[in-house]
Amino acid sequence: MTWRQVLLLSCLSAAVLLSTENRQKLRADELRREYHEEQRNEFKNFVEEQNDEQEERIREAVEQWRQWHYDGLYPSYLYNRHHI
């Protein structure tokens, strides 16, 4: 083998190694991106559930307050007062 052939083979092997390394990096980036997207979606769902539960608790508290303060008039007394 001449030195040109050796140089050519070493360049080709270096290019193959670099492309393999790049593919591995791209795959690792893709896996990392998928993992973070999954984590973000799980957190988003968790937050939505928490907000829904909070809204339900508030709605129930407001409903209990209305039932407790209801004076038999409709709409409730706050809106049914007539000022003379």
TrEMBL record:
Residues 1-18 form the signal peptide. It comes from the Eukaryota. It is found in: Secreted, Extracellular space, Extracellular matrix. InterPro entries: UCMA (IPR031386). GO terms for biological process: embryonic skeletal system development; regulation of osteoblast differentiation. Transmembrane segments: none annotated. The keyword Cytoplasm does not apply. Its main location: secreted. Residues 21-64 form a coiled coil. Keywords: Coiled coil, Extracellular matrix, Secreted, Signal, Sulfation. Pfam families: UCMA. One of its GO terms (cellular component) is extracellular matrix. The keyword Membrane does not apply. Belongs to the UCMA family. May be involved in the negative control of osteogenic differentiation of osteochondrogenic precursor cells in peripheral zones of fetal cartilage and at the cartilage-bone interface. This is Unique cartilage matrix-associated protein.
